[in-house]
Amino acid sequence: MKTLALLQQPPVIRKTPGQFYTDVLKGLSADNKYLDSKYFYDAAGDKLFQDIMRCPEYYLTGCELEILEQQSRDIALTLCALCSTFDVVELGAGDASKTSILLKQILDMGLDYTYFPIDISGSMIGYLEKTLPRQLPGLKVHGLNGEYIEMLKASASLTAKKRAVLFMGASIGNVPPQEAAVFLKKIREQLRPGDILITGFDLKKDPATILAAYNDAAGITREFNLNLLRRINRELGANFDTTKFEHYPIYDPGTGSCKSYLISTQEQEVHLEDACIHFAKDEAIYMEISQKYSLADIDRLAREAGFRSVRQFTDRRDWFVDAMWQS
Ligand code: AVI
């Protein structure tokens, strides 16, 4: 009987901890606690980010939209002058709503090209492959689902043409500034001589305007940060009580670093599988950096990453720039 009972027991399967768990545990076990902002974007986080982009204080989206609406023809003409014929690759394409303005402009100029959107979200890639050719007749779309550098490499084997790589929306700001040149160099290593990179940078400006963008009155950015604690609860079975954490963004006009923290409002313990994480009252979790740059910083970054700076397309207030570099 005993043997049979043992035989009938399901085998104990030890689940190897996933990368999300490993990263969260590492960050919350550090002396200065931190979480990686790339984990903001689960389905709820994606939705909250869409809401942030509609917040009146979050000027970044409107600025880049203005650049694309007003200067797409200029951007496309500059690309044609540099490359004559090229394909377009986009890192972190999302729903491509802003980029479609530039894509349309390039089509209207009679260029036959393929758009390779790269995104970590497979459903987003499926959506783009389905909807974009309907919105922009004549556009060829070949989606690449995965990590930026790996997929950029894959795009090289899919085209012999020059590539214009787009990295829009100030996503570079979420890379710590001391790592930005290395990250951009990794992109350049996947390009051929003459290929183009267009990167969106949020520019240094009135500190109050910047801080308000990360501390909107409706509290959506606060929810965006707290959602990562909720995600850890949902996916890793932790027991964060989000009412015991406060959103605390800061902007340092000296360095251009805008950082977000969650502050524990009381001494507390949070359980994450076998681990017990202790928070002192007022202890911080560093959540995200959104680095702001000057035009001179950006030219310096281009040189450090091995690019030649071609042109800087700014909005009318000089709050945002899409910087065009050549490999
Ligand atoms: C995606 N990224 C450019 C945004 C930013 O401005 O740093 C993410 C964000 N975080 C809070 N609000 C928006």
Description:
With 327 residues, the chain is α/β, with parallel strands linked by helices. 41% of the residues lie in helices and 24% in strands. It contains eleven helices and 13 strands. It has helices at residues 2-8, 19-29, 43-53, 60-83, 99-108, 122-135, 148-158, 177-189, 207-213, 220-236, 295-304; strands spanning 86-91, 114-119, 140-141, 144-145, 162-167, 196-202, 245-252, 257-264, 268-272, 275-279, 284-291, 308-314, 320-326. Strands 1, 2, 3, 4, 5, 6, 12 and 13 form an eight-stranded mixed beta sheet that branches. Strands 7-8-11 form a three-stranded antiparallel beta sheet. A two-stranded antiparallel ribbon has the order 9-10. Helix 6 links the parallel strand 2 (114-119) and strand 3 (140-141). Helix 3 (43-53) runs antiparallel to helix 10. The longest helix is centred in the N-terminal third of the chain and has 24 residues, at 60-83. It is globular, with a radius of gyration of 22 Å. The N and C termini lie far apart (72 Å). The relative contact order is 0.16. Residues 1-14 have low confidence and may be disordered. The protein binds N,N-dimethyl-L-histidine. N,N-dimethyl-L-histidine (AVI) is lined by residues 52, 60, 169-171, 173-174, 214, 221, 224, 288, 290. One of its GO terms (biological process) is methylation. Its EC number is 2.1.1.44. It comes from Chitinophaga horti. Pfam families: Methyltransf_33 (PF10017). Residues 21-326 form the Histidine-specific methyltransferase SAM-dependent domain.
